[in-house]
Specification:
Strands 1, 3, 4, 6, 11, 12, 13 and 15 form an 8-stranded antiparallel β-sheet that branches. The protein is an alpha+beta fold. It starts with a helix and ends with a helix. Helix content is 22%, strand content 28%. The protein has 4 helices and 15 strands. 32% of the residues are buried.
Length: 301
């Protein structure tokens, strides 16, 4: 009988340690960087026809040959029919000569291909069957380098992300947030005068949704956030990453409630909250067991 209190004490201490770990362990939420940093343009491509607006920059796209739309990853997607040579275009809007990242969603009709973003003989991000690739040029005449991913197209939309890292001297490509492929690129992307297009190229046969361009290299965490387990992000989601909440000054007057009025707390419970709550529950159980152990010891004495 004298060994039972020691056993119970050890058991209680183990439970206390478990509860403490749950309560104090940091919970790492997967959040991106400020994705408005060096953001050039973002197109949701939700419009049914006509101009496709740049949700962030000034590079609205002209509809050539009546580009349609279909259901996309987030809202709608622009749909291109190869026989009509449909394209969304703007004349020579920008030059991506340094670091850049281009991201967009693509779905193929038949065997495709479909061009997500192309500035002829500067850069091209596209989905083929079975390839998905980022092309760049170092001479303005040919596609001299490409990073690709050889994956059979099944159905639905794929997220394509291509980037150029001038420090590492590489171009890289990732499909659906899988491990990137990279190749060396030591040249310089020329500054041509060609238009920037989504679709077109005399070949696009499929749909494109939410195309985004940055003049920097995104982190792996940023790319994971963009993919969002295949659910994607809207341009507004991306822009909102740059909006820091405005704190309420200490002592600020928030108003008073009249009879029948109430405030609503707008808060979403996260997985981290549940872990902390679970830890607190464990700690409460441990305290109860600890008190019970003390009482039991006294009873046995």
């Amino acid at each position: 009988m004298k060994h039972r209190p020691a056993f119970l004490t050890t058991f209680v201490l183990i439970l206390a340690a478990i509860g403490l770990v749950f309560c104090v362990s940091p919970v790492y939420a997967q959040t991106p960087s400020d994705l408005t940093d060096d953001l050039v343009s973002c197109w949701d491509l939700d419009e049914g026809s006509g101009t496709r607006e740049d949700a962030y920059g000034v590079n609205d796209l002209t509809d050539v040959n009546t580009v349609g739309r279909v259901a996309g990853v987030d809202g709608y997607a622009a749909n291109f029919v190869v026989a009509n040579n449909e394209v969304l275009s703007i004349a020579d809007p920008f030059h991506l000569g340094g670091d850049f990242t281009i991201a967009g969603w693509a779905s193929l009709d038949d065997s495709g291909p479909v061009f997500i973003a192309i500035k002829w003989h500067e850069f091209l991000l596209g989905r083929y069957a079975p390839y998905a690739r980022l092309y760049v040029s170092d001479d303005g005449v040919s596609w001299s380098h490409n990073a690709n991913y050889n994956a059979a197209y099944v159905s639905g939309f794929d997220l394509l992300v291509g980037w150029y890292d001038s420090t590492a001297e590489t171009i890289s490509f990732s499909l659906n947030n899988e491990t990137p492929s990279s190749v060396s690129f030591t040249g310089t992307i020329p500054d041509g005068s060609n238009s920037f297009n989504i679709g077109g190229g005399g070949a696009s046969n499929g749909s494109v949704d939410t195309v985004v361009i940055w003049e920097r290299v995104l982190s792996s965490n940023d790319r994971t956030w963009l993919y969002n387990s295949g659910e994607g992000r809207s341009c507004q989601d991306i822009i909102d990453t740059g909006l820091a909440p405005t704190p309420t000054p200490a002592g600020a007057y928030l108003g008073s409630l009249s009879s029948g009025d109430f405030y609503t707390l707008d808060y979403t419970v996260t997985a981290g909250d549940l872990i902390v709550i679970g830890g607190l529950v464990v700690m409460l159980i441990v305290i109860i067991l600890g008190l019970g152990s003390v009482i039991f010891k006294q009873w046995l004495a």
